[in-house]
Amino acid sequence: MAIRQTPDGPIWRKRTTPQSIALWFGWLMLVLLFVLAWEAMTRNQIWAFVWDAPEQAADLFGRMVPPRWSYMDQLWGPLWDTINIATLGTLLAIVLAVPVAFLAARNTTPSPLLVRPIAIFIIVASRSVNALIWALLLVAILGPGLLAGIIAIALRSIGFIGKLLYEAIEEIDLRQVEAIRATGAGPAQVLDYGIVPQIMPAFAGITLFRWDINIRESTVLGLVGAGGIGLQLKASVDGLAWPQVTVIFIVILATVILSEWVSARVRAALI
Amino acid sequence: MSGPAVLPDPASEGARRYPRHWRRPPLISDGRLRWAIYAGVLLYLVVGIGAVEVNWGRLSEGWERGLRFLGGFVEPDFVSRWDDIRAGLIESLTMTLTATVVGVLISIPVGIGAARNIAPSPVYLACRALIAVSRSLQEIIVAILFVAMVGFGPLAGFLTLAFATIGFLAKLLAEDIEDIDAAQVEAIRATGAGWWQVLDYGIRSQVTPRLIGLSLYRLDINFRESAVIGIVGAGGVGATLNTALDRYEYDSAAAILILIIAIVLVTEYVSGWVRARVQ
Question: How many CB atoms within 10 Å of residue B130?
């Protein structure tokens, strides 16, 4: 806060003069950066393609309706695959992420100097790469198919589940752990009776949340060949079969909404 | 415990032997439901895993490739495709920045319109509908549509990211406005301020720190997404990565991945630092 003295008396202001100049300069820099970035981005842009975008959009919409509902018959199989990718991927991620989370949490890690940084690194690396990029890699290595999709979903989910779970482990009530230890319990029993019951609700919530996200992500994994309904989407887009694309979009939207509803119901029942 | 409270015969077995073991209560108390759920899960696992067709021949070939790919991580090749990588990264970064700025500028009015406590109900419904559409469509699907409309290149990516930003930021901003302290708004209104002045002095000052924090967080997310939407032709480093993998140039692909992870870490760290200072 600052007071500026004027001939008419003091005036209240929020910032001192140097502060407001620094702030103004910061905004100027942001605007400058934006203009430069815009210039760099649109240097090779052919604007003729952009100006007719409204017509293109109208044209596209015209091709997309009416949806070809008969295509639905071919979508049930891929839809089942999509749900399998998400569910089995989430299960695989749980198996891998739970030990990582216990190794990463400060109060359960066997060695804060040696093991914890490795576990944290696994979590960070898994989180910074999108499931589609994992799928891209795995399709190149394992070949196209469901397996690549499941592993891609699992690899991406390790970071998510691991991070939220280790934060939950770090926030547990230590008195309960102490109480179990006081009964003469060994380390495994302390884990089983002192820590696990405390993190179970968080664990269930995190897993359901991630399953919900994974359903969403697995619908597009097929774009890079990792199985599921995305394969049909890619085939239809590449073949310019827009009425089929509409059907696929509607199916994806319905699946996402349904999975959100299911996970909300299960969460309400469990927690 | 229900049932008739009959005291056991002191001479019987049950009264003399106190329980020496405690068993934790099961998660689902109804036994039949519990076993039904276990059976259902088991059945699903059998059917679901059975549906995964694994081509073992292809997999054994894959091991060798996987090892080569891991080798690429040990010795990433930044040099031979550097021009492509640089172009891709610049596209990604410029797309991220412009899309975040434009997205934030559009989300502010949309977010204000979607706050129930200040917007009239037709505006509220329209803004909430826009947010719902933006949130339920994934980036990659929006990117497919924008590429079909404006052609390949970073402009399609920019439009995609800006559109996705609106759904994210406007929703959180609207919820933040709905949660503000009404007493401050009341105080400003009591001075005789008009609608704009109430917005400026009563509401803006309460939500600005969080808005800045959320914008920086979204900048993070947008960079991550910008690395992906290139796969469908919307510009950015994802296209470069896709090409490198198509050519089986695992060392270049590893270099791109390392750069993506590094940039994500830096932006996450910087935005976390700024957020901690602003909030």
Answer: 19
